[in-house]
Design a protein that fits this description.
- The structure holds two protein chains of two kinds.
- Chain A is an alpha/beta fold.
- In chain A, about 35% of the residues lie in helices and about 30% in strands.
- Chain A contains six helices and seven strands; from the N terminus they run ββαβαβαβββααα.
- Chain A has helices at about 20-25, 40-55, 75-85, 120-125, 130-140, 140-145, and strands at about 1-5, 10-15, 35-40, 65-70, 95, 100-110, 115-120.
- In chain A, a hairpin with a 5-residue loop joins strand 6 (about 100-110) and strand 7.
- The longest helix of chain A has 16 residues, at about 40-55.
- The relative contact order of chain A is 0.22.
- By secondary structure, chain B is α/β, with parallel strands linked by helices.
- Helix content of chain B is about 35%, strand content about 15%.
- Chain B contains nine helices and seven strands, in the order E-H-E-H-E-H-H-H-H-H-E-E-E-E-H-H.
- In chain B, strands 1-2-3-4-5-7-6 form a seven-stranded mixed β-sheet, with helices on both faces.
- In chain B, strand 2, helix 2 and strand 3 (about 75) form a beta-alpha-beta unit.
- The chains are: A alpha/beta, B alpha/beta.
- At the A-B interface, strand 1, strand 3, helix 2, helix 5 and helix 6 of A face strand 1, helix 1, helix 8 and helix 9 of B.
- Strand 1 of chain A pairs parallel with strand 1 (about 10-15) of chain B.
């Protein structure tokens, strides 16, 4: 199974409950809260879900799910690779490029609702069809020839 | 590269939107795939804006509806907004989907007539959920044209799983040619109680089925991010384990039920994918 799509780091910041929520909105200041780092990206999320379910059926499926995505050469990629390895996911489909690894930054209010954010997801757009088909076909050439 | 695939493993591709307007992609990716009948490709629209990216590719590969030819893309899983956007885009210039003879030759084989319309009207009167009557009926299938849009897109997408949020899921699928003989749907008739419609055409079978939403305790939802991704991931896992899952009513129901459970687990988790998906459902 080859999944082609985005892999990203989600950084979400949630403000600790305030007595007056409106103080936070448009305050031009920082507030105490929790900042969490998570793996994201639709392609990567799908790959993780598939990987988790397949491997819960049988360990034969440990390497069956391959995520093909574009990452940068930066600490975000290291984080992505390390976390994916922790789950047992393959990381050999993450293609290094000159772009920055995709990052999505979200600010949440004390209730967890999205206040705003910035998504820096250009990396995946740099992956064009030719590259994808060749790379992923290389990765699975034994599979293709067997079919 | 490290080769870890086993010989005979089902190879399938999932496309999330890339530069699909790149003609290179059409020639080098979908074309070699479509020559291999065992291949499955799955397109996840991802967002309303990105959802149309697959249309030019699928449209370029639209075949003439010859006996047993499948749609260029095997699976797509839009939500209601993405479905409407994909449909509108496919209809627009220069794709003009429903004006193309190749589109009509497939649609014509469905032989949809007054019986189908009656079945659809009956289905539309059912409640969204038997457990929660506050969710209304399935009238959105006809009033919002959801059934019509899905059917119009079937010549491009063999199986369409429509994520309707709190209204559950709608699956539209076509079974073509020789696949009909090994499909459990072949002996089924429309059944409003079972929430499905089966139309027996000429060398084509069309199925439209609604799956009620799973009941989720209100306070238990932690984070909605990634729930749809877990749903798709679960469908893919089911397809890897049972490539013909959509060909039979029982296996389709199991596939969708597992997918809904996976989505609910992720709703109840602070993570983008719930780690509990690793515990066998």
């Amino acid at each position: 199974l080859v999944i082609i799509g985005s892999a990203a780091i989600d950084i979400s910041a949630k403000v600790t409950p305030l007595s007056d929520k409106d103080v936070f909105l448009g305050s031009h200041s920082t507030f105490p809260g929790t900042v969490m780092l998570e793996l994201g990206g639709v392609g990567r999320n799908i790959a993780e879900a598939t990987h988790r379910i397949l491997t819960s059926n049988s360990q034969d499926w440990l390497s069956a799910t391959l995520l093909v995505s574009v990452v940068g050469v930066d600490p975000f990629r290291d984080l992505l690779q390390n976390k994916m390895k922790e789950i047992g996911m393959r990381t050999d489909g993450l293609i290094a490029s000159g772009m920055q690894t995709a990052v999505c930054n979200m600010v949440l209010d004390p209730d967890g609702a999205l206040v705003g954010g910035v998504a820096d997801m250009d990396a995946i757009q740099s992956l064009d069809g030719y590259e994808v088909s060749n790379d992923s076909l290389d990765l699975c050439s034994s599979d293709l020839t067997s079919l | 590269m490290n080769m870890t695939f086993k010989v005979g493993t089902l190879l399938s591709y999932v496309w999330t939107p890339l530069k699909f307007d790149n003609s290179v992609l059409v020639r080098y990716s979908l074309a070699p795939l479509s020559t291999k009948t065992a291949d499955i490709n799955y397109s996840e629209p991802t967002s309303v804006i990105k959802s149309t990216a697959i249309i030019p590719v699928a449209n370029a590969c639209l075949n003439n509806g010859d006996e047993g030819r499948r749609s260029p893309v095997s699976f797509a899983s839009p939500n209601l907004s993405e479905l409407a956007q994909m449909h509108a885009y496919a209809q627009s210039d220069p794709w003009n989907l429903t004006a193309r003879p190749n589109w009509w030759s497939t649609i014509d084989k469905f032989s949809l007539g007054s019986e189908f319309r009656t079945d659809l009207e009956q289905l539309a009167r059912r409640n969204v959920s038997d457990e929660s009557l506050t969710k209304g009926t399935l009238s959105f299938l006809t009033e919002k044209g959801v059934a019509q849009m899905a059917i119009n897109l079937l010549p491009l997408f063999q199986n369409i799983v429509i994520k309707c949020g709190g209204l559950g899921l709608v699956v539209a699928l076509r079974i073509s040619g020789r696949d009909i003989t090994r499909s459990g749907w072949a002996k089924e008739r429309s059944n409003a109680y079972g929430r499905y419609i089966v139309a027996h055409g000429k060398g084509e079978l069309l199925v439209l089925q609604h799956f009620a939403p799973h009941v989720v305790e209100k306070g238990s939802i932690v984070n909605v991010t990634g729930a749809g991704d877990s749903l798709v991931g679960s469908i893919l896992a089911s397809l890897i384990l049972h490539p013909d899952a959509f060909l039979n009513p029982m296996t389709l129901a199991k596939c969708i039920d597992d997918a809904q459970q996976s989505a609910v687990l992720t709703l109840q988790s602070p993570h983008a994918v719930s780690p509990s998906l690793s515990k066998r459902l």
